[in-house]
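User: We ran a pulldown and think these components assemble together. Before we commit to crystallization trials, I'd like a predicted model of the whole complex to look at. Sequences follow.
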Amino acid sequence: MTDATNSPSTGPMLSADGTPLKKSLQIALRRQKLRALALVAPLLLFVLISFIAPIADMLFRSVENEIVSETIPRTVIALEQWDYEDGNAAAPSDDVYAALYVDLSEAEEFKTHTRLGSRLNYETTGMSSLLRKTGRGIGRMDTDEYTKQFEALDPKWEDPAVWVAMMQSPGVAEILPETASAWQSWQRIVANKNDVLAEEQPEDFIYTMLYRDLIAQPASAVAAYSGSGAEMLQTADSAVDGFEAISLREQFLDIDEDWADAQIWGTIKAFSSPYTAGYFLSSVDLQLTPAGVEAQPENQQIYMLLFGRTMFMSMVIMGSCILLGYPIAYLLSNLPLRTSNLLLILVLLPFWTSLLVRTSAWKVLLQQQGVINDILVWLGLVGDGDRLVMINNQFGTIVAMTHILLPFMILPLYSVMKTIPPSYVRAAKSLGATNWTAFWRVYFPQSVPGIGAGSILVFILSIGYYITPELVGGTTGTFISNRIAYHISSSLNWGLAAALGTILLAVVLLLYWVYDRIVGIDNVSLG
Amino acid sequence: MSKYTKPAVDLVRFVLPLMALAGAAMGFLVGTANGVSLLGAILGVICGVVLAWVLASFVPSTRTGILAATALFAIAGLMIAGPAGIVGGVIVGFVLSWLSYWLFTGSYRAGTPIYATPGQVLWHNTFKFICGAIFFFLIAPILTIIPLSFNAENFFTFTPAMLSFDPEGYSLKHYRDFFTNPDWQQALKNSVQIAPAATLISVSLGTLAAIGLSQPHVPFRRAIMAILISPMIVPLIISAAGMYFFYSRIGLQGTYVGVVLAHAALGIPFVIITVTATLVGFDKSLTRAAANMGADPVTTFFRVQMPLILPGVISGGLFAFITSFDEVVVVLFVGSAGQKTLPWQMFTGLREQISPTILAVATILVVISIMLLTVVELLRRRSERLRGLSPG
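Assistant: Here's a predicted model for the assembly, 919 residues in total across the polymer chains.
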């Protein structure tokens, strides 16, 4: 094969400025793409920040659980050694109580223990009051015995400056690990009070940790330490064996007997990881217990019921929209354009009317002293005493939402039916089909895409509805969305609200994907 | 006006029995309301048959016949039940006389081919009746609240005074309340401040993006489209929850800016959809011609492209405006008491059943939506005309 490309006559085609045409076209195309992207970019950025980020935040919140490991980090670590066993589970060792003592001493200062309490209360009732009570009692424990005994041994232990010097010397963290850890908490407490570290005598929990460290360390390790306060430490180390010991476990039990309950500790351990499936389990009527995943008690199982009811009522609404929408769409598509345009206004007017106007109209019509009941009583069909209850139940929600969503069924159906040629039905009839056969075998199958599009649209819209069920649904006609709103604004269990919302979002996206498959995203029509 | 011809319909065997039935039904309703069901039905049968016979035999002009019968029944109603009876009389007289002409002149066969069997004619008319009932279901609730908003009492239903057309039964006090009550005025002010701001953001950014998306080569077109349309697909309660969580993290929860941003995000899909649809019919060679004659891209946009796609932009803007103006779920969570909008005020009012002022507001909103609907419809027609899609 000859190397023909080198000869100028058959070489790559060049554009006016001498660059190869292919390359210059590529540059032009890239420029075009960039210009298009630059036009889209501001809006994309806006939607990402104002809409997608909130959705992502909600997804994150449905699994996020950092509050436990942030509020009581030492306890969480100490509990790793402890295993909950069902039945005769024993409460954890004194180490765990010591860790909790330090953690809660700090949390009490920052008042984070109440937030932790409300978080754990969603899982085990009583946790909130237990933690509040413990927070109040933690400063009044008998651990001041340790403080007194250290002070009796050497008055210098009272001096904050000595403590500061000692805790800053290298090597002290190795021989006094718990004290060093507690000292960090103490530093944060002092900083929070805007006090000076070297002027505040440490609280009892520091002395308690010092006692625990000195008991735990062999004398040789303490003797090897040579930093600030080494002498004091060695004296103390030889004396601590004679100290009166205070059981922290007993101290906690004095505040509340529940601290001996393995169930409490099991709950803390089960929810100690920074991410939890607990909210999702709660949304499907399960719960994460110390012993594993279990069903919620019978009387607290409401979410599956609510999901089921939401699905069922959306189905009913979708069904009644098909029943009512099909004749209208058929009529509109078979009338002359002028007449059908006029009648279409009757469909578009409700579509354009405010949702609240329509809901309030139904509230006015359906209530017991409302227009429909008045007419029925006037006609004598219903006695004045037993007026029909048509609102604040499922009936009211279904009627009002069918009315509100009906245009969303009629418009797609109409746009599909307009394209069905009337000659097919005529051909079927001329071949001997009865009216019914011609409709059912020829016309109806061609209108199925419209039914599919309208149904999915109505279904997607109805399972996420909030306002109408809230206003006319009472207690039996509410949807899962009302529960989400309740958890956001009343019970403040945001994690559970986020998990319920995530499940709902997943269902909607799945349906939307189906919709896209059947109808196509670009065919969304606005009437 | 239909010309009277020799009856093609059997008067005795077809029209009179049906009219007897219709008269019986009417008489039964009127009788039940007055506590004498059976008597009413019997009188109704007589009225129906006599009226049909008289009209069919002696009054060939449809219009004259209907007017005369309506007037007759109205006078009868007035004599029996006072002013309230006029309405009942007018309705009964009109329906019965119209029905007898409809049956007698053969208009009931109008929509069906000449060869249709009686069964087919019956089905055709039943179908029309069903459709009428569904249209009634669609429109009646909205129309009912309009007279109720002029109620002189604080009731959500028609009072006897209203039914007897007593001027005392009607008043503008709920409208007066709406225009003087500081709560409602504050809500109106907030709505009027939030909706235009949100619309401005969604229209300006959305139009740019729609123009970008309609270019021939856009990378990740489907993914971008999916993201931009998503505020319309995600249920409002989920958007509201997410925005509440996220906006309270960044300090926008409970602020005017937060509500405007949220509403702008919700309005964007509508702008994108309408403007993209308008751009489908846009002739690209026009911009090229403009560029060829020396116009820079900005001039081309404002002098050539913008006027042509303006109907789409405005109707997208109206959609975005009504979305924000009607929106209640998101503002309920993202806003605080200071951003209480009109729908929010209505929502709390409906929950607590405070006063029929809600109905006055609803009536005003219905009027506004009728105006918007008209504007959008006119714009759509104009846009189709500009693009040559329809001859009108």
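Residues 29-61 of chain A form one domain. That may be worth checking against your pulldown data before setting up trials.

User: Thanks, that helps.
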